[in-house]
Amino acid sequence: MRVPAVAYPFSWLPPVVQADMIYYPIIAAVGIPANVVTIAILSRGKCGLSRCITRYLLAMSAADLLVIITDVILNRINGYYFPTTFLFITPVCSFRAALMRAVTDISVWLTIAFTFDRFVTICCQKLRTKYCTEKTASLVIGTVCLLFCIKNIPWFFIYEPYITIDHVPWGCHEKLEYYIVTAWVAFDWINRCLTPLLPILLILLLNALTVGYILAASRVRRRLRASKNDVNHNDPEMENRRKSIILLFAISGNFILLWATYVIFFLLYRITNQYYSTGYNDPMYIADFTSYMLLLLSCCTNTCIYVVTQTKFRDELKNGLKYLLRILFNLVQERKVQSNSQP
To answer: Is the peptide bond before 83 cis (omega within 30 degrees of 0)?
Structure first.
């Protein structure tokens, strides 16, 4: 068991720990309401999106919400403020680690599934009617969840306790075999390749193909309009394609930039065989902390990039906020009436 960070004066803590203790509560305070509101609005089905797209976005929002709960709250925040709870008994801690990584993988690969669905919708007109359906979306989502739950089962067996008190094992520490045994090293490489190396390559490829198709189709459309002497330069179709390109680049840039530190850190410690840091000021230690901070931010912003840019979603959000403010105003007025009516 560890001594809680809050047991020391905040000013005594290393800067990287201070940053973490401030950063993760903010992520939780912002990410949970954002994803809950997103799920509530999408469930109403009034955002002008197809059922297929809505199904993907709902699944992505739910996965991001679970990432915040399992990794940010139960792991990061709980580790800093309440490290002596039953959640740090070694079997429970190992289960949390496996669940945390499964949920992160699911969040990432649902983003890939949705990106592929958009690619098929725009670039593969013949396949579109068969693939881009609500039934296919449900099947893909279920398959992704099942496969990555199975894939992350080995994480349960990676850890050993820090200490045993009254025959109860406490804490989770990677076994030495995880770094030197060939099978575990291979598992680590497979794990990092599946998340995020392969997703980064797939996002770049799918978005490049989609953007190339949109640009080629836009050039053809401009030539057709020019041949018809169409003087109206406001083309709604080309405007929609322009917005699609911006959205795709935003998605790619967000995912790649926020996961880049994590990938660089993994490659660095594998190449240098430096698996342990020398202290809080060690660049490897700081890079490790920073990579996870950015990683979790990526999981919290995926839904915002896909959904908040939609005009009808913003309208639904505004209407919801107005409704909540109206309820709060009515409650305040009722309290005032009750207080004035009392002798």
So the answer is: no
Token reading at 3:
């001594």
Which of 153, 161, 71, 159 shows the shortest CA–CA distance to 108? 71
Neighbours of 111 (CB within 10 A): 26
| Residue among 307, 311, 218, 293 nearest 257 (CA) | 293
Q: What is the spatial distance between Cα 171 and Cα 29, in angstroms, rounded to a whole number?
A: 26
Please tell me whether residue 3 adopts helix, strand or coil conformation.
coil
Of the candidates 214, 56, 29, the residue with the CA atom closest to the CA atom of residue 142: 56
**C-alpha gyration radius of the chain:** 24
What is residue 176's predicted lDDT score, i.e. its pLDDT? 85
For strand 173-174 and strand 168-170, is the pairing parallel, antiparallel, or unpaired?
unpaired
Asked if residue 265 lies in contact with residue 197, where contact means CB atoms within 8 angstroms, the answer is: no
Q: In which residue are the tokens 């189709």 written?
A: 217
Residue 16 near residue 285, CB atoms below 8 Å? yes
| Lowest-confidence region among 43-47, 54-58, 171-175, 339-343 | 339-343
Residues 13-28: pLDDT tens digits?
888 888 888 999 999 9
Cα distance between residue 227 and residue 184, in whole Å: 63
DSSP state of 86: G
Q: pLDDT (tens digit, 9 = 90+) per residue, 253-296?
A: 788 888 888 888 777 776 776 656 667 777 777 888 888 888 88
Angle at the Cα of 1 from the Cα atoms of 11 and 268, rounded to 5 degrees: 70
Q: Is 227 exposed, middle or buried (0-12, 13-18, 19+ CB in 10 A)?
A: exposed
pLDDT (tens digit per residue) in 191-224: 888 988 899 899 889 988 888 888 787 777 677 6
Residue among 116, 83, 66, 102 at smallest CA distance from 3: 83
